[in-house]
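Hey,
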Amino acid sequence: MSVHKEIKRVTTHILQEMKQRGEKISMLTAYDYSMATILDDAGLDVLLVGDSASNVMAGHETTLPITLDQMIYHAASVIRAVKRAFVVVDLPFGSYQGNSKEALNSAIRIMKESGAHGVKLEGGEEIIESIQRIITAGIPVMGHLGLTPQSIYKFGTYTVRAKEEEEANKLKSDVLALQAAGCFSIVLEKIPAALGKEVSESLHIPTIGIGAGQHCDGQVLVVNDMIGLTKGFKPRFLRQYINLYDEILGAAQSYIRDVKANDFPSEKEQY
């Protein structure tokens, strides 16, 4: 039976029901209209307009440089394509930390100017006030714990987080705090699979893993990595389903040859 039989928008309520019945949640990143159209047609449950756009779309080394205005531009492009998926947008670095009023204003701008369905914030108890303020305004919030890329300069490395007992205990405490604050879901990034399992089972809201093991309630990958557009990036948690880098490279080289040889356009390709 086709998943496209009936177009029914995915909501936070539906995601909660999916966890309750044991159905895994599928999530990928999206940054533009064309890709979001394909991913929504494919039947993804959630699309994340990630601040990873800073890396894969803009070429920055980290996620830190991307601005709120740029995130809104990407989010609006994705929203115009989507008919079914739930669309979450990252609040970028500097738009919510340390100031809950600014956090609320940033979230409101994203919702009003892009039409997104929710926002994602990195961090635990230290940003609870911001999360509560946003949720009180009626905006769904997804949490993000473990390896939080906006803190990369604090961590100093992209290695697996929460391997030591102290950090693992803080993560366990943080997930409960995020759930109590009203988050509808939490992304767990690059933590041991056993911890991902324990945390997922301790919560009534769904977890979405990226490098957090098979027992999370859903999985997310950066779409550019999953389809092989990102050359040379192959961490352990990534499964590459197609190698578009080589496919596009070959197509571009064929085009160059045809143009140079005056084989394109042909008589059938002109007026």
